[in-house]
Design brief:
With about 170 residues, this protein is of the alpha/beta class. It is about 20% helix and about 25% strand. Strands 1-7-6-2-5-4-3 form a seven-stranded mixed sheet. A hairpin with an 8-residue loop joins strand 3 and strand 4 (about 85-90). Helix 1 (about 20-30) packs across helix 2. About 40% of the residues are buried. Mean pLDDT is about 85; it is low at about 1-10.
Amino acid sequence: MEAPAAPHNAGDLELTVTSPDQMRELGRRLAKLLRAGDLVMLSGELGAGKTTLTRGLGEGLGVRGAVTSPTFVIARVHPSLGDGPPLVHVDAYRLSGGLDEMEDLDLDVSLPDSVIVVEWGEGKVEELTEERLQLVIHRAVGDTTDEVRHVTVTGLGERWAAVDLSVLSA
């Protein structure tokens, strides 16, 4: 008999991405699943493709402005060009204080009305909501030109329990 699945984990989806274009396309497909109030956490080493994925997500959501790494401004808001939610793109890499520093960004105020994507958010944004989508991007480390990335997508909470993440691998 199999152990029952965790009640709030929709399961993991493993994807292989072989180019930056495919990473952008993954972001565009992901955008179709997102709605206002969603928090997406992106993890992966430098150069893994977090911002490339977010660029595709912005394209899929139809937001204004080029999605670039918000490293120096920490957070950037991209308003919707249509009737969809704005995209709030956060780079928490330089935030060392955990949730206290994150609270200074007032993300909890933005969360109900926006899609929030946080790069480097581990240990910093989990308390904002138990319902989130986590993407971990693995790449070959060292001196390599290998474009292959392995992406693990995990939906947490009731919001993601009924979402079919397999559409991301289409």
